[in-house]
Amino acid sequence: MDLKGIKITWLGHATFRIETPEGKRLYVDPWIGGNPSCPESEKNVKKADVLLCTHGHGDHIGDAVEVGKKHNPVAVGIFELCLWLQKKGVKQISPMNKGGTQTVAGVKITMVHAVHSCGIQDGDQIIYGGEACGYVMEFSNGVKIYHAGDTNVFSDMSIIRDLYAPKIVMLPIGDHFTMSPREAAYACKLLKPETVIPMHFGTFPLLTGQPSQLQDWAPDVKVVELKPGQTIS
Can you give the pTM of this predicted structure? Predict the structure, then answer.
């Protein structure tokens, strides 16, 4: 896997810090402080240029407001979620919707479909948060990374392959709330990536899927199992 100057750090669950070749820092699904898988050394965010939020569940946007207010990044998400973040004090929002593409901090970001729910827990209310989504990120060096968000496998992943052809994909495998390794292996058949980085597993006892199971189901794909806090470059 040649990342050509990109640095990817898994912070546990679906949270990633991605550093671009130009030194910009993106946080995907920023759940940090309350994330039991996130190492203590990573819980003090020092810099954030972009927040990418796939949907409004607390285990994906748990620190979006805090990081957004402290570091003033550009928050990218579906329209309704971005408006909620703005209402909570995040000053820079860049809302979009599925099929749309925009360039933020030098990264070409395309919002794609996901199959999941998206209510925002706001006090004792559940607020409509738009729909869940995934992102294809194309960096200045030509590398394309697909973060699927929380999703089950869906046949239109073949469209993501045909239109964007990401070689590196981040897929949830935990089961129960997302797809299991078996469904993730079918997603690999549709996406045809070179490398899969499993996510959304092991955080809680219910999330039973394991990277080794995905590798068994998808022997032709390189499964890169990261440990929380581990960086690859």
Answer: 0.98
